[in-house]
Amino acid sequence: MVFWGTIFLCAVYSASTLLKNNLKCTFTTISSMKRSGRIVIVFFAMLCMVLHARAQKRNSLLIGDDKLELFIDTRSSKTEIEALLKKAGLKSPNASAVLQGDFTSLKKDGWVMIEKRGTIIEFQRSLKDLNLNPQLHPYLVTANVKDDDDGSPGYPADVNFGINNFNKVTVHDLPSGLTRFFVPGYQQNRRMLLSGDFNNWSTLKGSMTKTDSGWIADVKLKPGKHEYKFIADGHWMGDRYNNLMSDHDNNAIYYRYNYTFKLNGYANARKITLAGSFNNWDANNIVMEKKAGVWQKQLYLHEGTQAYRFLVDGKWITDPANPNTIKDADGNTNSVLNLGETVLFTLDGYQNAQKVYVAGGFNNWKPGEILLSKTKTGWTLPLIIPAGNYGYKFIVDGNWITDPKNPRNMEEGGIVNSYISVKPNYTFKLSGFANAKSVRLAGSFNNFNQFGYTLAFNGKEWTVDVNLKPGKQLYKFIVDGKWIIDPGNKLYEPNQYNSGNSVLWIE
Prior knowledge:
Blueprint: H1 2-19, H2 36-55, E1 60-64, E2 67-73, H3 78-87, H4 95-99, H5 104-108, E3 112-117, E4 120-126, H6 127-130, E5 139-140, E6 161-162, E7 171-173, E8 179-184, E9 192-196, E10 209-210, E11 214-219, E12 224-232, E13 235-237, E14 252-256, E15 259-264, E16 272-276, E17 289-291, E18 294-301, E19 304-312, E20 315-317, E21 325-327, E22 333-339, E23 341-348, E24 356-360, E25 370-371, E26 373-374, E27 378-385, E28 388-396, E29 399-401, E30 409-412, E31 415-422, E32 426-431, E33 439-443, E34 453-454, E35 456-457, E36 461-466, E37 471-479, E38 482-484, E39 492-493, E40 501-506
Antiparallel strand pairs: 1-2, 1-5, 2-4, 3-4, 6-18, 7-8, 8-11, 9-12, 10-11, 12-13, 12-14, 15-18, 16-19, 17-18, 19-20, 19-22, 21-22, 23-27, 24-25, 24-28, 26-27, 28-29, 28-31, 30-31, 32-36, 33-34, 33-37, 35-36, 37-38, 37-40, 39-40
Helix pairs in contact: 1-2
Domain AMP-activated protein kinase glycogen-binding: 190-252, 268-340, 351-425, 435-500
InterPro entries: AMPK1_CBM, CRP1_MDG1_kinase, Ig-like_fold, Ig_E-set
Pfam families: AMPK1_CBM (PF16561)
């Protein structure tokens, strides 16, 4: 009996130590057990719990009691650790360093290591530092976190157009340029969070402010489609006033608008709709609204070239305020709208050429679509292109050529094309290597293509501009065929080739 009691107590102690506060267990004291069979049953039950706990990777993030508690299991993969650190709100999570025992990134964000028990390391951070409302009872944040996020912080989903649909408007744009999210009621709640693709579905950063009528949070959003949810005292919930929901996870959808279509006149018209290339020419789903004598419709519209028309009481018309028109394959005349950055394409010489076109990824490489104008010194054309990285070529009387004035190239389908970045948000630089014949850039943004993007040398350093999505980017330079990490960037992580990749975080 003493033997079984000793084992039982050991099992209880081990389980309570391993599980800490994550599991609540009620144990029956040995003195209350009159039959050894009960002890054996309880012992095996506890033993199973201990073995199960040991078999699980116990990464967790708890919030409550005026502090955050972070538990990291060093048996976990780098991906698992990085996801956990991201949910914990670290500005620059470095999973590789943490797994190697370097907790600098955690310390910089105010985390203090409390203790290490086997493979489990516990960190704590005061909620007062985060200016958050504390919880009466702790709850497990990581149990409610979605792991497969489609969006990236501040980078909306790629859609052609979008229009909001609310029963009661709970999200709207402010004159300051911020977007306000509002949760009516819930006055009895102690804490409300806003979580979405714009803050990487954070469970810590989206603290909302309590008002006399509900909760509000102001966020800076880019135009486009955004998904979001609210977290009320640890419980995820959707926006009950929003009629737009995602196909997965029932996330609410909000479109930040960037364009307003307007049609003056037609005061006696009964119904006017808008149709275009962005909505597959559906004449029924975008109804114009009459405001102050002007028919208008505000919406999100993807950058690029968009053709459109108005349908006024059953009759198609082009936009009288827009002189830009084009005929489609059926002979219909449509108004044309160009959204994006203006890029000036120039080709010097070729005075004897009959026609010069430009084609690239921005027009799906259609060869006879974009015609340049002839000048005294060559050919030129200003063209509006959406933000992104593109390959392009000139077509001179049917012959495809790269841009002689552009030293930067890229490879697509085994073909070398000139390279251009529209609205770049980062410049890669490599100092030195003055005697190198070629320096290229490859990374997660171009699938680590071994040809990469060609850098140009300015006498001091090699540079190339790139348009990158916010979030984590991996990259390397290729100097005369040799792959190297960025000597000017201290952030790197191991790869499958044991050679490492440089790490870049884009806000």
